[in-house]
Design goal:
The protein is an alpha/beta fold and about 230 residues long. It has six helices and nine strands.
């Protein structure tokens, strides 16, 4: 909504399996199945994350289908953005880069450094910017740099590599959640509390580190810049 370009959006689901959080009537009204759009071509595709950080890739019920989508995007989409779990999954599928599981879940808002001030995807970013993260796994920086076609564009001392892109920008990998609303991390924290998981308080999120305080977004401007630049 922040761009003067006219954008037509298709919302796509990978399979017909019931959703835990979304009524089937909503999915059938607003979403199209991947099989129904495979004959189309797109300027951009965003493949979102999923709460599968502790599940082996091959054990994901729709792993074969998501790999089909990864391969389809290579020839039918100008540029694909992979978010969080999808980023790690696509890196594994395309380049054989495996993730490592952290001792604790990474949750919170982390500071990041721009590595190339002339890079198009980070144009207009401050030298240091904030992004929310919510994940169990990560790919080592040296593994990213072992692939000649990939460029590391931004990283964090705490969260590791955040933004990676192929040389031709047809693949963009984002390990955080620039799209999160102000309350998303709070909702996830409360969900994990209710599930008895004893989660750590999200980093740099609640004022004075007090979960009774109202959370506020501190990353929205850079999130918008990233999507607009892409």
């Amino acid at each position: 909504s922040n761009t003067p370009l006219q954008i037509n959006v298709d919302l796509i689901r990978i399979h017909k399996n019931p959703s835990k959080n979304t009524p089937i009537s909503h999915l059938e009204s607003f979403y199209r199945l991947f099989d129904d759009v495979k004959d189309k071509q797109y300027d951009g595709l965003i493949i979102t994350g999923a709460p599968l950080g502790l599940v082996n890739y091959e054990d994901v019920s729709y792993w074969d289908k998501i790999c089909e989508a990864f391969d389809w995007a290579q020839t039918n989409v100008v540029s694909t953005m992979y978010l969080c779990w999808a980023a790690h999954a696509a890196l594994y599928h395309h380049y054989g880069l495996d993730r490592e599981v952290r001792a604790d879940k990474l949750s919170g808002v982390c500071f990041h450094d721009v590595l190339d001030p002339l890079e198009r995807l980070t144009r207009g970013f401050d030298d240091e910017f904030k992004v929310p993260h919510s994940r169990y796994a990560q790919v080592k920086e040296e593994d990213y740099r072992s692939v000649e076609q990939l460029n590391v564009l931004a990283k964090s001392d705490v969260a590791g590599v955040y933004l990676v892109a192929s040389e031709d920008k047809r693949q963009v990998f984002v390990t955080g959640h620039p799209e999160y609303d102000a309350h998303t991390l709070a909702q996830e924290y409360q969900r994990d509390l209710n599930a008895g998981l004893e989660p750590k308080l999200p980093l740099n999120y609640f004022k004075h580190d007090d979960p009774n305080n109202e959370p506020r977004s501190s990353w929205r401007s850079h999130g918008s810049l990233l999507f607009n630049n892409w």
